Amino acid sequence: MSATSDGKSIENANAQGEKSATGYSWYVLTVLVIVYILNFIDRQIVSILAVDIKADLGLTDSEMGFLGGAAFAVFYALFGIPLGRLADNWNRVKLLSIGLALWSLMTALSGFARNQVELTLARMGVGVGEATASPTAYSLISDYFPKRQRATALAIYSSGLYLGGGVSLFIGALIVKAWNDAYPVDAPMGLVGWQAAFLAVGIPGVLLALWVSSLREPIRGAMDGVATESSPTPFRAFASDLSMIVPPFTIWGAWQRGPTAFVINIATGAAIAAFAWWMINLTGNLPQWSAVGFGYYAVFSWASALRARDPATFKLIWGTPAFICTTLGYGLVSLAAYALSFWSAPYAEIVLKLPKAELAFILGANGALSGFLGVIIGGRMADALRMKNPAGRILMIILGVVGPIIPIWIGYTTENSTLFYTMNFVAGMLGATALGAAAATTQDLVLPRMRGTATAAFFLGTTLVGLSFGPYMVGQISDLAGTMVDGKLVGDLRVGILSLIGVAPIALGLLVAAYRMVPTAERTIAERAREAGEPV
Asked: How far is CA 321 from the centre of its chain?
């Protein structure tokens, strides 16, 4: 079946009121899940390699938290903005193929890093490449699956997050041991085990990109009965969006919008820079707060420019409190999830003294299975709840906030390894129930042509809030609670991880607000778009 015929079958189904996914829809979803698995293998393998990297490069917990978080997250989030818009305007299959090849190459290059700076630059490159994945995948899935199946489909896609994260631990530990056993001295190119692991997981992605390029591009918006043409000049919009997030072009763009916009942009940039400088002096972590400050200023500049250039999209994303509260609320869920996925393996190795091979296998299997079950069950339950209440999916996100609290407390205060593994499983499963619900809620609040941009905005919450701060926060608090041993700082990871519980009340407040606002926001989506100048 061709892309055109597949699109026509969808349109015919719409005409008969029979919106449903095709067999090819499920094939595409399968390929996208495999891509997402590799995405998270490349992203999360740093966790199982953290102890070795830290020892080889002489890093602290907070510096490792930066490498596992903001070094990747800021560039992932920022480039997700223009790449999300490009996904709205260009061929999504081509964009995903190029991005997959790029992040796989940069993962392989991480294996040649000899210091923190080189590894940071490689992880930034991984972030840029991976920024293509979810905007394209979310948009493709929304055009292959009807609304009634969308949370389920997005949840299945999101299961790649947990499968990839779990597999990364096992693969990383296996490669490190095999390499170091084979080459205790005089290793090829002088590489040690953790460097070989980056090479081993990066290179296959380049080949996978060829398979992805064979997928068919669906008709945009046809599943919702609102077929939308792609932009005739997609790269012009991409270049324009890129200039909105990269200083000093952001300043020039603000000047073009008028003196008031220029002054506001400069003042906001100065305020963010002052806050970042204060935090650098307070924590001594220049890379973390420089990256975060750069990221938040860039997001502000982009949102300001979007408001002027595409007021309808701005109104349905940044101007919709339900969208913002859902995104930030889930962002705090992801903060805890990212922190645990990064630090659980180093914690088990350092605090519980568990062997790397054992903990990698058990934690990897735990993470993959618990995440997979949680995200699938959560997606199905979210769809069922939405049938009864437009805001019903928010209840699943709330479960993702409150459910893991007790398991985290028990798991990270016990000395019993079996109880530790069990509580990690329970916390991971309950936390994972939120993802499909959050993603589907934000997709439902925008028009089809805005889905890629909405996905980018949604992932700003999961990255600039969750990933940028989760691993770093645990590492920083661990350093603050640590002690000096033989002239070296030894952190307290137990205190660092338990501090995550303090985030739950804030997330809960945001999600309760979202629950109250989603029905109104959803009922008036077309009206609000018209008010902003969108022909609906």
From this structure: 21
Q: Return the structure tokens found at 117.
A: 């700076």
Token output for 428:
């991971």
pLDDT in tens, 256-297: 889 999 999 999 999 999 999 999 999 888 999 999 999 999
- Whole-number Å distance between alpha carbons of 104 and 199: 9
Distance CA 168, CA 222 (A): 37
**Which residues of the chain fall short of a pLDDT of 50?**
1-16, 18
Buried residues in 457-496 as b, exposed as e (16+ CB within 10 A): bbbbbbbbbbbbbbbbbbbbbbbbebeeeeeeeebbbbeb
Tokens of 281: 């002096």
How many Å separate Cα 232 from the centre of its chain?
29
Beta-carbon neighbour count of residue 175 at 10 Å? 22
pLDDT (tens digit, 9 = 90+) per residue, 121-135?
999 999 999 989 888
Helices 133-144 and 70-89, interaxial angle, to 10°?
A: 40
How far is it, in rounded angstroms, from Cα 393 to Cα 435?
10
